[in-house]
Structures
1.
Amino acid sequence: MLTLHRAALVLPDPADPTAPPLSDGAVLVRDGRIAALGPYRALAAAHPGARLRDWGDALLTAGLRNPYGHWLLECAYHPDPREGVGDEPVFGGLAGTTDEARCGASARRGLQRMLGFGVTAVAGPFERASVRTAVARSGLAALPGSVGDEGPLDPLAVLPLGAAAHGRLTDDGPADFAVFALTAGQGAAAAGGDALRPGGCLATVLAGRLVYRRR
């Protein structure tokens, strides 16, 4: 099935300040890969049977890499909503524990919350078997190079988009990307990522699947 994702701005390579954004652009997805990038009208005309996801006044770009994966998934504890203590990571909440089931459940909740911030890759290493399993099943790319320090679930809380982005969008590349809200007047500044606000993720797509959508 073909799916066409349209957004007011499409930024294929957020790490390259010279790469221009596509105004009223779109990404065509087939079988978990990017089949084409380009102007929305041209792609829609060429593929009239494609399912449309119109994200409106938003920025579609490469997903984010969270560099604090080791700390967030193996040291911090992600509470169950039923515990009634909020959803922020609890520093040191897994220190000294040997309960792999508890660690795995915490990691799954943490990974799900990362998806809500546009994260498509997370940095390890991951030493616990339960955490490695949770990461593998999440669909997020597991990368080396975790900074090892305490950090937020949302990379945009501490990094500009160009530094936080994981790779770029290319023809026949993996359909891993995120959509972020724009506010009136952001325009070209947002295309460079400077005006994106933390917590502004509208949707996250992994291998062509919509894995998060803001309600």
2.
Amino acid sequence: MQNNTILNEGKLLYTQKKYDKALAFFLGLPTDSDADKIEVSYYLGLCYTKLERYDDALLFLEQVVTSGGNLERTLQCRFLLAVIYALSGRKRLADFELNKLLETGYMTASVYAAIAYVAWEQNDTERCLSYYEQSLKEDPDNVSSLNGLGYVLACQEKDLTRALSLCKQAVKSAPKSAACLDSLGWVYYKLGLYKDALQYLQQAEQIDTMNVEITEHIKSVRLKSGH
């Protein structure tokens, strides 16, 4: 008989965002434990995802998806799989998973946002813009889409006024998001407001010090502004 109270300590560590400790807990469970194996795989997948160990995460998330168990959990893992596929350059797999999710109606705004991101990575700007717009129709406050659409509009130098509005809204909702701060800084750069651009880009860099794109954006601003 399965006894999932065994997992309570690990679940608590996970909810406390102590992902390393949670991972160690779940990995440390004895092989003959009474705990639900799919439940363990689920939390291992989540921990590895949070720790950005994506190849390890895939292994466990796929186990949950193929188990045919809890529907909500399966859909959540399918979404995470799609995001990981997108981040790791496996765009076709990402597209496949995202389209499967669209058929179910799961987290539609977030799925649209993820499809838009994949399209952007594939240099399909029109499709990207279309899906970000669809996402915002579903959920006007979706931070990923506010930020993503604002950034893409800025990169394309299309409707910079709207791009600024979208990115400001994203930063208001997620003031400590390096991605959102970077996008807002980039819009200001495109508007020729270099002082404002540098302010937000440097904030982004302080949060995500290893991000190459943010560093390149700062270089671009300094080159243009002569600083």
